[in-house]
Specification:
- The protein has helices at about 5-15, 80-85, 125-130, 155-165, and strands at about 30-35, 50-55, 65-70, 75, 95-100, 105-110, 120-125, 135, 140, 170.
- By secondary structure, the protein is of the alpha+beta class.
- A hairpin with a 2-residue loop joins strand 5 and strand 6.
- The longest helix has 14 residues, at about 5-15.
- The protein is globular, with a radius of gyration of 19 Å.
């Protein structure tokens, strides 16, 4: 019996360390950074079925003050701006998912404006957001180029209905 105790302890520790993060998606609209994801070649498109969001949103619904559907811009709270300042930027971006009522609406990258790399997917410039308090969702970085084909879900009805209901939508 003494010999089985170390084996039981090791098996228990191994099974605990292999558990996936258990993200509980919240109601409302939230931006989550991704702890893991897969991209579809040759684009930077993030496979929605293979993403694992961080446990807590980087921007919660209480941080979203308004959304302008023409400019595709979220106005965010000062506390959300501060959280973005604490995040490290990578020249190849930090992937995120926008979630509305527990459903993945679209994915993209926090893509810093100092990056010389092109991103053919949805982007948010975190530096601009830190200074302006606005998350502008852009099609591609530095802009939508002729050969880029990016599905545009920025004005998804599920998103707009929530914002309209809470009077956060700017037409």
């Amino acid at each position: 019996m003494r010999h089985f105790l170390p084996i039981i302890v090791l098996v228990t520790l191994f099974s605990i360390s292999c558990e996936k993060k258990n993200t509980v998606l919240e109601e409302g609209i939230h931006f989550y950074l991704l702890s893991d994801h897969e991209t579809l070649d040759p684009l930077w498109e993030i496979e929605k079925n293979a993403i694992i969001p961080e446990e807590d949103p980087i921007i919660s619904y209480v941080d979203i003050l308004s959304y302008n559907l023409k400019s595709h811009t979220f106005k965010i709270s000062d506390s959300a701006r501060e959280r973005l300042q604490g995040e490290e930027s990578d020249i190849h971006g930090r992937p995120f998912v926008l979630v509305a009522h527990k459903q993945f609406i679209y994915t993209g990258y926090f893509w810093a404006s100092y990056s010389s790399a092109i991103c053919p997917w949805l982007t948010i410039d975190p530096i601009h957001a830190q200074y302006s308090g606005e998350l502008r969702i852009a099609l591609g970085y530095p802009w939508l180029m002729d050969d880029m084909s990016i599905p545009d879900s920025r004005n998804d009805e599920r998103l707009l209905n929530i914002l309209r209901q809470d009077r956060k939508l700017i037409d």
